[in-house]
TrEMBL record:
<dbReference type="InterPro" id="IPR027417">
    <property type="entry name" value="P-loop_NTPase"/>
</dbReference>
<keyword id="KW-0813">Transport</keyword>
<dbReference type="GO" id="GO:0005524">
    <property type="term" value="F:ATP binding"/>
</dbReference>
<protein>
    <submittedName>
        <fullName>ABC transporter ATP-binding protein</fullName>
    </submittedName>
</protein>
<keyword id="KW-0547">Nucleotide-binding</keyword>
<comment type="similarity">
    <text>Belongs to the ABC transporter superfamily.</text>
</comment>
<dbReference type="Pfam" id="PF00005">
    <property type="entry name" value="ABC_tran"/>
</dbReference>
<feature type="domain" description="ABC transporter">
    <location>
        <begin position="5"/>
        <end position="249"/>
    </location>
</feature>
<dbReference type="InterPro" id="IPR017871">
    <property type="entry name" value="ABC_transporter-like_CS"/>
</dbReference>
<dbReference type="GO" id="GO:0016887">
    <property type="term" value="F:ATP hydrolysis activity"/>
</dbReference>
<dbReference type="InterPro" id="IPR003593">
    <property type="entry name" value="AAA+_ATPase"/>
</dbReference>
<dbReference type="InterPro" id="IPR003439">
    <property type="entry name" value="ABC_transporter-like_ATP-bd"/>
</dbReference>
<keyword id="KW-0067">ATP-binding</keyword>
């Protein structure tokens, strides 16, 4: 099966005011998202995330490069090439923008009826789809309330219901949990996992890195239009894993030997000392030094980098 999203050497360049200089928003971007994956598309503000999403949706024209959705190509100086600009392809994409806005004088059910008709769904099929998506996002109880009485979390869920109306295979979610309280974030996160279980592909753009870490299979970090980190989440956060050894009775002489081996030593007021060493370091050599110096080993455990740590370190290294 072809990837759900296949981006090859994608670039988008804007001209500044009066056309005096060019501004590159996306620079030679290449990435793949397989069907059924949850992909986290991360980056600081102005990195090129929104531009990439708009190109995927056919709203913006790429300057160069190729994009494929489920094997269908749209490429070079046009959004959807004429031969692929069909309703079937577009119906396979659901989109939740950041901070979705709906007419406040409509009920949730009326909002979905409006968007369903835009999708070309009519009659009994539309009623069934509305009922199905309301149940999926847990909004049946509020279907007949006016949107103006919805909380922010309820608006996000009705936005997801709107994105799911055509039963798309791909969902593009822009900041799905921004500004939500912990309960609402948990509800949206559980819903994303449920959608993955139904075989949907999710392309998630978010600054809530702890949320991304809980749901994503693969991530890509973009900065200044360039992809600077890309791969399976577990592989990335475990790549630079460290080992922490908690000890007591560590002498200054032994500490100097450990630091000479590029170990980091942190003493605490409790009398216990943490010895950090990279996983690639020969752990048995460190243990031999501790044993020969009669240092007591209290605990030894692996420590992996969080997605937030990985993100900050990667962006800072790229800027430097």
């Amino acid at each position: 099966m072809p990837p759900a999203i296949e981006i090859e050497n994608l670039s988008k360049t804007y001209r500044s005011l009066f056309g005096l200089r060019k501004v590159t928003a996306v620079d030679d971007l290449t990435l793949h998202v397989e069907e059924g994956e949850v992909f986290g598309f991360l980056g600081p503000n102005g990195a090129g995330k929104t531009t990439t999403i708009k190109i995927l949706l056919g709203i913006l024209y790429p300057t160069s490069g190729k994009c494929k959705l489920f094997g269908e190509t749209f490429t070079s100086n046009s959004a959807f090439a004429p031969e692929t600009a069909n309703s079937k392809l577009k119906a396979n994409i659901g989109y939740l923008p950041e901070g979705p806005y709906f007419h406040e004088f409509l009920t949730g059910k009326e909002v979905l009826a409006f968007y369903g008709k835009l999708y070309g769904i009519r009659g009994g099929n539309l009623k069934k789809r509305i009922s199905d998506v309301l149940e999926l996002v847990g909004m049946e109880y509020a279907a007949d309330r006016l949107v103006q009485h919805y909380s922010k979390g309820m608006r996000q869920r009705i936005g997801l219901a709107q994105a799911l109306l055509s039963d798309p295979k791909l969902l593009i979610l822009d900041e799905p949990t921004v500004g939500l309280d912990p309960i609402a974030r948990r509800e949206i996160r559980d819903l994303m996992l449920r959608l993955r279980g139904l075989g949907k592909t999710l392309f998630v753009c978010s600054h809530e890195l702890s949320e991304v870490e809980m749901v994503c299979d693969k991530v890509g970090i973009i900065n200044r239009g360039k992809l600077i980190k890309y791969g399976r989440l577990l592989d990335l956060v475990l790549k630079d894993r460290a080992v922490e050894i908690e000890v007591s009775l560590l002498s200054e002489e032994t500490q100097k030997k450990l630091e000479a081996m590029k170990c980091r030593v942190e003493r605490s007021e409790t009398g216990l000392t943490s010895v950090w060493l990279p996983e690639r370091q020969e752990i048995y050599d460190v243990l031999e030094i501790l044993r020969s110096s009669s240092t007591e080993i209290v605990e030894m455990k692996p420590k992996k980098e969080s997605l937030e740590d990985l993100f900050i370190r990667t962006v800072k290294e790229e800027v430097a």
